[in-house]
Amino acid sequence: MEQTFNISEFTSKVAIVTGAASGIGRATVELLHARGARVIAEDRDEKVNELARDGIVPLIADVTEETAAQQAVELAIGQFGKLDILINNAGIIINKLVMEMTLEDWDRIFAVNIRAVFLHARAAMHAMKPNRSGSIVNVGSYACFQTFPSIAAYAASKGALAQFTRTLAVEAIDHGIRVNAVGSGDTVTNILNHIHQDGHAALAEYGKHAPIGRAAQPAEIAEVIAFLASDRASFMVGAIAMADGGKSVVLPA
């Protein structure tokens, strides 16, 4: 089936995007909305309210809570009548060696990076199933497959996300719902702001080690997310689409 890009390809579509206040999440909300989607923008950060406009409804919630997933889906249906797309973007990282890591550190990483994905995917699928259509995109990382010292919890959570994506995909496709993930590389976002004085600069520097020689901008990853969510990716099921500037295809220097 021949398909072409349509600037209004998400007209009539309703989406939920988690981690929407900044970075990749914010860029994804703005891109989907610009192409016609109506969006529930979910984040625990009150800055998500800055996205409020016709067709974008902010939701302040902790993605790790079961009630947050239920509230997001109910808000999508209540405001816009249905749910077509879920983007599980919320994520955090911690840089600690295993022997220095607390149980609280470990549990928090897994709560945000995989528990929240499960909760939102489960709630979204119940809403999508009656329509026998839908798309779920999980935002992973090169850490779905690679690692280095100090990111044990993050890498383990992203490895879990990759396997969750694959398993959910084969369960969901029987209901007409496609599930895929994007494996993002170093992207200039706020994810390292709690670790570095200038998190953006640190990520830009890390990005130089990829074959492409730079970090991504959030809008570049949002384009991949939008593609996976769209009908243009209609034959993609359980894929981990790497958008990491080539980092996952070379050995570390």
Order of helices and strands: EHEEHEHEHEHHE
Number of helix segments? 6
What is the CATH fold-level name? Rossmann fold
Shape: globular
Radius of gyration over C-alpha positions, nearest whole angstrom? 17 Å
The tally of strands reads 7
Looking at the chains present, what oligomeric state does this protein adopt? Answer: single chain
Main β-sheet: number of strands, strand sense, barrel status?
A: 7 strands, parallel
Low-confidence stretches: none
- Percent of residues in beta strands: 15-25%
Mean pLDDT: 92
Classify the helix fraction into a percent range. Answer: 25-40%
Structural class: alpha/beta
CATH superfamily: NAD(P)-binding Rossmann-like Domain
Describe the structure in your own words.
The protein has 253 residues and is α/β, with parallel strands linked by helices. It has one domain: 3-Layer(aba) Sandwich (Rossmann fold). The protein is built from six helices and seven strands; from the N terminus they run E-H-E-E-H-E-H-E-H-E-H-H-E. Strands 3-2-1-4-5-6-7 form a seven-stranded parallel sheet, sandwiched between helices. The longest helix has 26 residues, at 103-128. It is globular, with a radius of gyration of 17 Å. The protein starts with 13 loop residues before the first strand and ends in a 10-residue tail after the last strand. The model has no long low-confidence stretch (mean pLDDT 92).
